[in-house]
Amino acid sequence: MKILFVEDHLTFGPSMTSLLKQVPGVADVHLCRSRARAMEALQTEFYDLLILDLSIPADDEDLEVAPENGHAVFYERDRKSTRLNSSHIPLSRMPSSA
Hints:
This protein is of the alpha/beta class. It has three helices and six strands. About 25% of the residues are buried.
């Protein structure tokens, strides 16, 4: 299974990525910290699962997080699944802790 994990928290993201890689059947976990990186990943790769923090920055240099950025990733994932005429990529959304 190939997972795209979108999380901007500097310690939680890498820690959870390490844990996910230990799950049997998980071949790869790609960690993205921003909308820009997640959109790029979705356009170039296919993922079996998307784990998405909705409140993420627009790009890696941005300090301001907004739910709109996570929503854009969500809709890109849905658009790609429809374009590929495949079943939807499973999604796990994490509520913001703020």
